[in-house]
Design a protein that fits this description.
metal ion binding, three-stranded antiparallel β-sheet, CoA pyrophosphatase, hydrolase, 4 helices, 11 strands
């Protein structure tokens, strides 16, 4: 059997099947809530299929933070449409509805956004063209790294609960919201476990 952690076609088949059987939770509308769509975009990588992460440009909202390609939904857009539009605007990658494998839970961020993660696979993504206005740098994390036992770290908090850190490389720790969405992707899609993430603790600086 081909390993979906090392073979993109096998990943696409597995992800489509598992996401089809996953009932995502949508955050209901509320006064003042804003909505965003982001893409968990799987592409070929040097170490096997990889997810694209970005470090945001050092200006504006979320300056310098780790994130997934994506952004605010425009009026009349679906989360999928917003996520794919932002993928093109931020990285120059074109994806259509046929590239979408499914959707994970909305994440209610402390910034006031409900973030909808859309899972996409691009076997032939073409060259990246990062927008300097929005993207400081582009990084890849392999599916094998995401699935590794030592990737999630749980840090106890003084006020109770635990904060998730996704250890994606040396000195590379990603927290909620992005870390929470990557953890749910890991658990649901890569490992076949049904988990929820809406109550994950977020660092104070993610609300700015």
């Amino acid at each position: 059997m081909t390993d979906p952690l090392t073979n993109l076609s096998a990943f696409q088949e597995l992800a489509a099947r598992r996401l089809a059987g996953f009932s995502h939770i949508a955050v209901p509308d509320a006064p003042g809530m804003r909505r965003a769509g982001v893409v968990i975009c799987v592409v070929p990588g040097a170490d096997g299929p990889s997810v694209i992460l970005i470090k945001r440009a050092y200006r504006g909202r979320n300056a310098g933070q780790w994130g997934l390609p994506g952004g605010r939904m425009d009026s009349g857009e679906t989360p999928e449409q917003a996520a794919l539009r932002e993928l093109h605007e931020e990285l120059g990658l074109t994806a259509g509805p046929g590239d979408v494998l499914g959707r994970l839970d909305d994440f209610p961020a402390t910034s006031g956004f409900a973030i909808s993660p859309i899972v996409v696979a691009l076997p032939e993504p073409g060259p990246l063209q990062p927008s300097p206005d929005e993207v400081h740098s582009v990084h890849h994390v392999s599916l094998a790294r995401l699935a590794a036992d030592d990737t999630p770290r749980w840090v106890p908090q003084l006020e109770g609960g635990r904060m998730l850190q996704m250890k994606l490389g040396p000195g590379w720790l990603v927290h909620a919201p992005t870390g929470a969405m990557l953890w749910q992707f890991r658990e649901v899609v890569l490992l076949g476990r049904e988990v929820r993430v809406a109550d994950f603790v977020q660092p104070d600086w993610t609300s700015k």
